[in-house]
């Protein structure tokens, strides 16, 4: 996921500003102004590195010297040094938690995603791990990027990515068929239509109405098999589940 560096800088500046507030009173009171120090970021368990680019950009923006010892997407070991940085002590202490939060959160998401994708690969499955939009406000870009770094699929990033008809839409409109019909009439042909269903029969209704993708919400493996067989039998085996 690429966005211009200046745009990414702005996202990081907003996160840092939220944490600093009106100023780091502790660093101001305890640490002498103008003091230069060095620091390292060390992993506390094995996993997959993510957020390294973001931490580097934030450090550069703050005038700190930083050397990354790993790249995003690389496997890391417990106690491995991920990066080294040096510069103004007050600045490092004020930005420390923001940088660590980004690295640890993104690395955690990347690690979990990689473990799941590797399980699918070992099972010789064509399935892919995809992420929902159930992200912390303000962190959607970083969460989705972490999934991509580890080999997962971001699914949709924003509400404008594709049509995703959920249970609440269907409850208001009245039926799966009516919801899909309205979407096909009003949305550009460039947008795929996905429908979330809780019953195998509704998966077939969605496919018959013209849905490109059917999301089987909280289906058990047996229910998923039932829905898949139902769609194939009706000639809709090409619908993505």
Structure report:
This protein is of the alpha/beta class. It has 2 domains: 5-122, Quinolinate phosphoribosyl transferase, N-terminal domain (Aldehyde Oxidoreductase, domain 3); 162-233, Aldolase class I (TIM Barrel, Alpha-Beta Barrel). The chain has helices at 5-20, 25-30, 52-61, 89-122, 140-149, 167-173, 176-186, 200-209, 221-233, and strands at 36-42, 47-48, 65-68, 75-76, 81-88, 163-165, 193-197, 213-216. The strands form 3 sheets. It has a 3-stranded antiparallel sheet, with helices on one face. Strand 7 (193-197), helix 8 (200-209) and strand 8 (213-216) form a beta-alpha-beta unit. Helix 1 packs across helix 4 and helix 7 runs parallel beside helix 8 (200-209).
Number of domains: 2
The proportion of residues in beta strands is: 5-15%
Tell me the total number of β-strands.
8
Average pLDDT number: 95
Helix content: 40-55%
CATH architecture of the largest domain: Alpha-Beta Complex
CATH topology of the largest domain: Aldehyde Oxidoreductase, domain 3
Order of strands side by side in the largest beta sheet? 1-5-3
CATH top level label of the largest domain: Alpha Beta
- The CATH homologous superfamily of the largest domain is called Quinolinate phosphoribosyl transferase, N-terminal domain
The helix-and-strand class reads alpha/beta
Any low-confidence stretches, pLDDT <50, length ≥5?
A: none
Succession of helices and strands:
HHEEHEEEHHEHHEHEH
């Amino acid at each position: 996921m690429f966005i211009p560096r200046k745009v990414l800088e702005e996202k990081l500046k907003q996160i840092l500003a939220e944490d600093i507030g009106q100023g780091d009173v502790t660093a101001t009171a305890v640490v002498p102004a103008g003091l230069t120090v060095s620091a390292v970021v060390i992993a506390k368990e094995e996993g997959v590195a993510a957020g390294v680019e973001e931490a580097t950009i934030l450090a550069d923006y703050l005038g700190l010297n930083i050397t990354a010892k790993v790249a995003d997407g690389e496997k890391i070991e417990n106690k491995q040094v991920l990066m080294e940085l040096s510069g103004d002590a007050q600045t490092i202490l004020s930005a420390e938690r923001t940088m660590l939060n980004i690295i640890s959160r993104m690395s955690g998401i990347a690690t979990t995603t990689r473990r799941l994708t590797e399980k699918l690969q070992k099972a010789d499955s064509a399935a892919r791990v995809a992420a929902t939009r159930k992200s912390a406000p303000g962190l959607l870009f970083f969460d989705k990027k972490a999934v991509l770094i580890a080999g997962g699929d971001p699914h949709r990033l924003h509400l404008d990515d594709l049509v995703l008809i959920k249970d609440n839409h269907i409850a208001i409109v009245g039926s799966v068929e009516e919801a899909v019909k309205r979407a096909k009439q009003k949305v550009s042909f460039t947008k795929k239509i996905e429908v979330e269903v809780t019953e195998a029969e509704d998966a077939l209704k969605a496919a018959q109405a013209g849905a490109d993708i059917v999301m089987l919400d909280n289906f058990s493996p047996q229910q998923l098999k039932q829905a898949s067989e139902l769609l194939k039998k009706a000639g809709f085996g090409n619908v993505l589940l």
